[in-house]
Amino acid sequence: MSEDMFEEVTATKYKLDITERTEEEARRGMLEGEAFMVIEIQVIGMVENYQGKDSLAIDYIAAFHQKALTSGWMEEKVRSLTDVCEGTVMAVNNRINTRLFLQIRKRDDKELCLYRLSAWLSMGDDGSQRWSIRDQIDPVFYRRYAYLLAVIKMVAAPDPGGILSPVIDRELGQFVGNVLGEEWKRSGGEALGQVANAIAYEIIDLQMYVDNLEAREKLRKAWDEKFLKATPAKKDAAPAPADR
After folding, report:
1. 52 lies in which domain range?
2. Residue 14 domain flag
């Protein structure tokens, strides 16, 4: 990444976990065991028109404290974390690029934050600095997708002797109930069909969730506005009677 590829921007539409604090607040927090995000790399996918043709572009936004804008150390960390993103998560094939392009093009703003990678600083018991790296995708999608994979593994993995049967039966029963609203039959071909049907519907629901993130946020804002309009304004308290 060359020097001229850096461009300063004053804001990002994607909420940050960076909290502006005074040096004293940061020092006290470190002593109390808090971890502070020092830098976050946001990987932004966008559809741009070039010579009359839409194409997928990937941009990297680094968010950090304003005082570090001229820091050579921070600049090097921006380069390093960006290289990590490019060489791992964003090293995707043409098929994935095409799917990203089609999904982002459906959005009104033709833009989506695909991935976040952040570096956090805390203090060890001996007073030394401790660094940790965290990454993030949409938390709702991640939890539901991880649970779906766990369910598929329960169905596919052998369980010699039925040692895990009570746990598997409980989890599959909850999964079928949550997705289909049905009571799981627990055994036989019909029970297996219920699980397969629930897996299929959950995959579809996850796809619909990703496709409608923007519409979901708009509906939430609309509900917030309705709630605020419906809340009666507080009346000023009546003045206390004067002493006689």
Report:
1. 3-137
2. yes
